[in-house]
Amino acid sequence: MRTRVKICGFTRVEDAVVAAQAGVDAIGLVFYPPSPRHVGIAQAQAIVAALPAFTSVVALFVDAHAEQIHDVLAQVPIDCLQFHGDETPAQCRLYNKRYIKAVRMQADTDVGQLARAYHDAAGLLLDAYHPNAKGGTGSTFDWELIPPHCALPIILAGGLEPGNAIQAIQAVRPYALDVSSGVEVDKGIKDAQKMRAFLKEVNQGDTIII
Ligand SMILES: O=C(O)c1ccccc1N[C@@H]1O[C@H](COP(=O)(O)O)[C@@H](O)[C@H]1O
Prior knowledge:
By secondary structure, the chain is an alpha/beta fold. It has helices at about 15-20, 40-50, 65-75, 90, 110-115, 165-170, 190-210, and strands at about 5-10, 25-30, 55-60, 80-85, 100-105, 125-130, 155, 175-180, 185, 190.
């Protein structure tokens, strides 16, 4: 099965269009005000309206109030939610939407237990731990912490970039890769060449594995 790719943290319509034309599976929109990649409703609507069919839209939240999430869902066509905070399984299930639960990996993180707790998630996203940030740090983590088998599709994140995508696919064999910082010129500003290079590497990685 080919490795899916999500590119996260778009703030500009033109960047999302380039990503879609290059073959990305999903784009991520960050609805977390402290993030430099945060988008408002109007900008999110403009980005989604410019996308072709079959490019999924993922909305990222960090410990958001339910009203904020309902507000986004009422105004922006979202395919999937991504929870990057301390949301409980019950909180993730409130919206009648497919969801991804992000986990910031530490030495004692029990991925199997999390997969059981969030058993109805559409994927478990494994990201680097940082004491002062919830994500989007550009840091990798020790992929040896990931168990070889998991009941949920594994979405690998954290410090991915053109240059380590093939290695990531070979080491982890994830369902998908999620990248943000590694394809940027500045926070929230994507680099067309880096996005294309990343997607090309993922295709190469899949070819090597097959
Ligand atoms: O992108 C952000 O600003 C962000 C903020 C808060 C939580 C998560 C965020 N992004 C996600 O972080 C991971 C890793 O990103 P990176 O490639 O290391 O920059 C990824 O899932 C982003 O969607």
